[in-house]
Structures are given as C-alpha cells and as structure tokens.
C-alpha cells in the first residue's frame, strides 16, 4: 500500500511544522508526517523548514530560550505525531557540513531512545548526514533525498551502497525502471512533493512506498481510501 505523508503537517490549515499542523494531519488520516529539523546554538533539535527564523535570525545562533512558543522541539513534534510514521529531514546550509552532521547525530541519538524509533525514517539531501545517522544508530531507517536534476538510478545505487534503505526522489523522477531496481534492492521509495490526484494514483500503480503531499484528504481520495 502506498502511504500518505503530510508535508510539514497539514500546512493548509495551520502554520507548517507546528504541533497543530501535525495533529491535523493525524486527524485527516495521514499515515505519516514529513518534518524538518535544525540545531540551535545550545544544541536543541527544533522543527522548522528554513535556517532563518523571521524576526529572530538564524536558528543556529539562537538559544532555546530565544525561540517563539509556536516553534516545536523534535520531542514535542514526535509527541504530536504519534502513532504516525515520521520522516525527519536533516536540514543544513551549504558549507555547514560539520554542523549538519552534528545535527544528524543528535537526531539519531534522541530518536533511538523513543517509541517512534521503529516508525521513523531520517532523510537528507546530504549523504554524509545520513551516514552520520547510521554511524550513531543502525536501528533507524535512513533515506537519501535527491533533487529533480539528480540521476535517480545512480542515486539509488549510491544510497544502497552506503547501507541506506530508502530513496526520496522528486515525483517526476519516478518511473517503472527505477521502481523495479528499488524493489530488487529492497529500497523504499517515498516521493516528494505531489498534490495532483492523477499523478498520485499513477505513482501508486508503480507501487511507490509513500507520497509526500500538501493535501492529505485529496491524496487519500486518489488512492481510494477516503
């Protein structure tokens, strides 16, 4: 069955990547939630898409006490998402490889202790970041995110060679050949970010493992699960 992941929660109803958005995704019947994490100056893992927080500055320069109340920690986000699956994306700016890998290690160390460990997948566009997750914990599923311009077959082979069990391509990169190769390697394919019902139905025919979408109800209807 193709699962439906809410992109940053139900962001069409609530501020994205917040507890209310995650709760709404669960109430709408999502199978999982996709969220993004950053590391604060004092080492807290918090949930936000961009590196900069409007009106406050770069998250990397802020302490936990300087963050607005609406911005959740990873712990608060996981509590809100339970019992859904959670895709935790490791964020990081170009040129910040060391800090990004530190974030990856912090996420792995924390999530491994949680009940969500078996239902979580940690992803990143950075291969070194998900390598760092695996180095910290072999219990967590990891996946390589790739840009639309990347060669999906080459990326699949690279991720598999590094011991990762998932590939997260843009939805236009998925075809029958990629899915055949993924299934042969026991690699999960979760596609981002697709909202068109016809495209979602076609991806399900190809047997992708999950679609990440901004519209959970429409995706469920497209899959005949409304």
Ordered list of secondary-structure elements with their pairings:
Blueprint: E1 3-7, H1 19-27, E2 32-39, E3 45-47, E4 52-53, E5 57-58, H2 74-81, E6 85-90, H3 97-112, E7 120-124, H4 127-136, E8 141-145, H5 152-161, E9 166-168, H6 176-184, E10 188-191, H7 197-205, E11 210-213, H8 216-222
Helix pairs in contact: 1-2, 3-4, 7-8
Explain the overall architecture.
With 226 residues, the protein is of the alpha/beta class. It has a single domain (3-222), classed as TIM Barrel, CATH 3.20.20.190. Helices cover 35% and strands 21% of the residues. It has eight helices and eleven strands. The protein has helices spanning 19-27, 74-81, 97-112, 127-136, 152-161, 176-184, 197-205, 216-222; strands spanning 3-7, 32-39, 45-47, 52-53, 57-58, 85-90, 120-124, 141-145, 166-168, 188-191, 210-213. The strands form two sheets. Strands 1-2-6-7-8-9-10-11 form an eight-stranded parallel barrel, surrounded by eight helices. Strands 4-5 form a two-stranded antiparallel ribbon. β10 (188-191), α7 (197-205) and β11 (210-213) form a beta-alpha-beta unit. α7 crosses α8. The longest helix has 16 residues, at 97-112. The radius of gyration is 17 Å and the shape is globular. The mean pLDDT is 96.
Q: What's this, in brief?
A:
With 226 residues, this protein is of the alpha/beta class. 35% of the residues lie in helices and 21% in strands.
């Amino acid at each position: 069955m193709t699962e439906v992941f809410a992109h940053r929660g139900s962001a069409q109803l609530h501020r994205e990547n917040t507890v209310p958005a995650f709760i709404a995704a669960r109430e709408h019947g999502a199978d999982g939630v996709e969220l993004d994490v950053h590391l604060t100056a004092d080492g807290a893992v918090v949930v936000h898409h961009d590196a900069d927080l409007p009106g406050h500055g770069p998250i990397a320069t802020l302490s936990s006490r300087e963050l607005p109340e609406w911005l959740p920690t990873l712990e608060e986000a996981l509590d809100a998402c339970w019992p859904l699956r959670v895709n935790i994306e490791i964020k990081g700016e170009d040129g910040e490889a060391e800090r990004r890998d530190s974030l990856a290690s912090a996420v792995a160390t924390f999530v491994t202790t949680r009940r969500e460990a078996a239902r979580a997948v940690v992803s990143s566009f950075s291969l070194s970041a998900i390598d760092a997750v695996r180095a910290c914990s072999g219990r967590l599923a990891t996946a390589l995110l790739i840009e639309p311009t990347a060669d999906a077959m080459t990326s699949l082979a690279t991720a598999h060679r590094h011991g990762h069990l998932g590939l997260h391509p843009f939805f236009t990169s998925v075809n029958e050949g990629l899915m055949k190769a993924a299934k042969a390697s026991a690699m999960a394919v979760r596609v981002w970010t697709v909202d068109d019902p016809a495209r979602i139905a076609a991806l399900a025919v190809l047997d992708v493992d999950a679609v990440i979408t901004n519209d959970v109800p429409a995706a469920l209807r497209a899959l005949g699960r409304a």
